[in-house]
Write a structure and sequence with these properties.
By secondary structure, this protein is of the alpha+beta class. It folds into two domains: 1-33; 48-171, Lipocalin (Beta Barrel). Helix content is 28%, strand content 43%. It has three helices and nine strands. Strands 1-3-4-5-6-7-8-9 form an eight-stranded antiparallel beta barrel. The N and C termini lie far apart (85 Å). 20% of the residues are buried. Residues 33-40 have low confidence and may be disordered. Keywords: Membrane, Transmembrane, Transmembrane helix. The chain crosses the membrane at residues 12-30.
Length: 173
């Protein structure tokens, strides 16, 4: 009986030591893990040329007159090979949408390209996907439940890479 008690005490001591060691390992491992935070640190602001082109288009173009959304980027990231690099935004957007289809305008300082899009509503978001197979997607927050109404993401693929633009849309209608 005494041998069993001594054996149980040794067993319990070993278990306690292992638990403490595991706790120490987990603590130090979490100290060395980089924290993932939402940040646009290192983002490059849009050029004045792009801002001027956007302002001109917003005031003096037929597409801006019919568009329900007018969107200007705040940041852009070029992604490929397992990493993303900040880059100056080079496009702005106008979106004219109906209930199931619409037109998505991708514009730069030289002009705009238009794409017919399918419109998909999902909760507080609206997503626009080109209906003719172009490899891009535009998504905007339409509600304010997350305090982000008008925020957008535009993703365009280029080969096996992606250009990701983020910014803010103004609802015009």
């Amino acid at each position: 009986m005494v041998k069993e008690i001594v054996f149980m005490d040794k067993k319990n001591i070993i278990i306690v030591i292992l638990i403490i060691a595991l706790g120490v390992v987990i603590y130090f491992a979490s100290q060395n893990t980089p924290k993932q935070e939402r940040s646009t640190t290192g983002a490059i602001p849009p050029s004045q040329e792009l801002r001027t082109a956007y302002d001109e288009s917003s005031q003096h173009s037929a597409m801006a007159d019919i568009a329900e959304l007018s969107c200007f980027p705040t940041s852009r990231f070029d992604c490929g090979g397992g990493s993303c690099t900040a880059s100056a935004p080079a496009t702005y957007y106008f979106v004219d949408y109906g209930t199931e289809s619409g037109t998505y305008f991708r514009c730069d300082a030289k002009g705009c390209d238009s794409y017919p899009v399918d419109v998909n509503l999902s909760g507080e978001f609206m997503q626009f996907i080109p209906s003719q197979g172009q490899a891009m997607m535009f998504k905007v927050a339409t509600g304010d439940i997350l305090d982000n109404k008008g925020e957008f993401i535009d993703i365009a693929t280029l080969g096996t890479g992606a250009i990701v633009s983020l910014g803010k849309c103004e609802f015009r209608k």
